[in-house]
Structure of 2-oxoglutarate-dependent ethylene/succinate-forming enzyme:
Amino acid sequence: MGIPLIDYSKLTSPNNAVREKEIQFLDTACREIGFFYLINTDIDKALVKRIMKAAKRFFDTPLEDKLKIDIKNSMNHRGYGGVGEEQLDEVNKADWKETFDMALDLPADHPLAAKYPKMYGPNQNPSDPVVLETLHDYYVTAFSVAQNLLIAMAEALQLEKDFFTKCFKNHVTVLRMIHYPPRPNDDHDNGAGAHTDYGCVTLLLQDDIGGLEVKHRNGEWLQATPMEGSIVVNIGDLMQRWTNDEYVSTAHRVRASQTGVHRYSFPFFVEPDYETTVACVPTCQSAEKPAKYESIYSGDWIQSRFDATYAYREKESA
Ligand SMILES: O=C(O)CCC(=O)C(=O)O
Ligand SMILES: [Fe+2]
């Protein structure tokens, strides 16, 4: 029992036997726990160092500067979210974290932004060019890792290799930076409440502090202890739905940092084009196991999950 390790260099190996064996391990991980460490990726140490520094630089700027790109002023959920803005777990206290979100940067008058203004449109960028350049570099690298991973998942599910990747022409993949400040008092241990992710897969880069926990199906919370040189990958709700519950989207949470400790993490939420029809993949249904879910646009699904999570959006629609 534990969070398995998957080797990206093997998943992308030109040697068929090596690749196929690792794809089997990947398939098992996605079915049994929906979480794994991905090692030997193309995200090099220098880039990890740069993004860690960029996050500190960004979150260390005065609140009034960060609020110039307040996510509340963004139609399409881009920019800075202050502490208490998000509450993932309805029962617990508000998440003790601040965030920054960016995605594909489209002008407000782009046809997709006009059609789906809550999902497409402009970013609200940090003013520091070094931070911005670093985020772009990381986004491009993480996206290529994600695409290769989705190719491997398609192979694992015995689908055409481009079954998933062909749905990423105008995708809504989000790079988020998170800063977990020290907990405000001893009994506020909620960094991020228990939740599942909405999209296809999430690639998470974390620093060496720790705090991420994954709910095993036996009910125990497993620590996703930081492992240098790795990222933590998990299956999201959209992928679970797409695969007729064969691949599982597993709950996870983050314990708030101890006094004096700051944690930084970087989830990369891999989400396809809005108008991707998510209907049960052909290899996940049979006479014995018919498709459980109606087909739906990926964007409509993700949108409905967003609306349920964000305090300010609920107030907006109340
Ligand atoms: O910060 C982490 O380790 C996880 C964050 C997370 O699960 C999320 O933002 O969805
Ligand atoms: Fe998450």
Remarks:
- The first strand starts at residue 5 and ends at 7.
- Confidence is low (pLDDT under 50) at residues 311-318.
- The chain has one domain: 5-317.
- Residues 5-317 form a domain with the Jelly Rolls fold (CATH 2.60.120.330).
